[in-house]
Specification:
The chain is mainly α. The protein contains ten helices and no strands.
Amino acid sequence: MHIATADLLIFLTAALTLNLTPGNDMMFVLGQSLKSGFRVGLAASLGIATGSLIHLLLVALGVAVILNQHPMLFDAIRYAGAAYLVWLAWKALTSPSISQSGDTKHRTAYAAWRDGAIVNLLNPKIIVFMFAFLPPFIRPESGMPLLQLFVFGLIFNVGGTLINIVVAASAGKFGALLSRSDAAARWFGRVSAGLFVMLAARLAFEKH
């Protein structure tokens, strides 16, 4: 397998531009980090990366084609994702803040990783996007097209994960500084809940 340097540079430019554009994944990490700190935001970022890897495998299996051909299945998945985000919003409003608990143990890294993976997997737009975005960069004459798909998909996933980690670090530090007061902590909980509700609305009502 050989990927031309020119193709790789074009892909990197396009992937970086897309990864820097605020989307559902970035907003989810932002909400988690503001509420519970960097550790939880980092775990959420890795959960999203896990979901993206599974989406990549599904693209390779042709599931994206099935979702395109069966809009009712597509809608069922995204409505489930929207409902899960609304539940997370409720949890953000009712769970203790950093200042109230003294640390972030109330929100474990595993729970944040799990929620990041679930939110990502229940967004069928991602698999459809990958199916549309990755194949144009694959050249059969370069050999092993499936491996090319995974290489480009991994590059895109790693880039997005690194940017999400930067967002988690920035938001986590900001949140930790201001959440020492109960009033600010409650405000961060409401902001996080608002972000999750906004993501749920986007997922449920935006056309794909």
